[in-house]
Amino acid sequence: MRTCELDEIVFLPEQKPRGKDNVTDLSHRVALIEHAIGNQAGLRVARLVSDQFTVQHTLPELHRLFGDSRLTLLLGSDIARTLLYRWEGLDTLLRDVSLAIGIRSNDSPKEMTSIMTQLAQDYDTTVHYTLISTPEAGITSSQIRSGSADTSRLHPGTLHYIQKHKLYPQAFI
Predict the structure, then answer these.
(1) How far apart are CA 144 and CA 172, in angstroms?
(2) End-to-end CA distance of the chain
(3) Which of 25, 60, 145, 172 sits between 20 and 30 A of 66, alpha carbons compared?
């Protein structure tokens, strides 16, 4: 929030994330986010109408919800790389939304800057983005589900919820 000068961060989990099989039920994923963010000011979870987010359908809904607010899409560098594959409506997204890109442990700021420069050239637009590095960059949801994540770095409430609801029994025996 500080780095991008945001008033609020709203987590918007998808009902049916692309490219993922056996996705945990949305109600559990919302609860996990709520446990992780606790009562931290400026953080909340919301559900949108769309099962899968698209620029065409989701961006207008966000503009209705947040009015004239400046929107920033927070995404990991692993997802930012997929922008090069020409998301449908990417020209609109790049024009209307700033990007906050969390650098994953396998990526570098230099690589992300190169990708953003390429997108700016390809779409003849200015790409507004901020690169963010955090100590948690190496933790992924896949690692948590498989049990290979360092669970000592998870929020205790989130870990308790996972164990209580036996969400990932192969990982938390």
Answers:
(1) 9
(2) 36
(3) 25
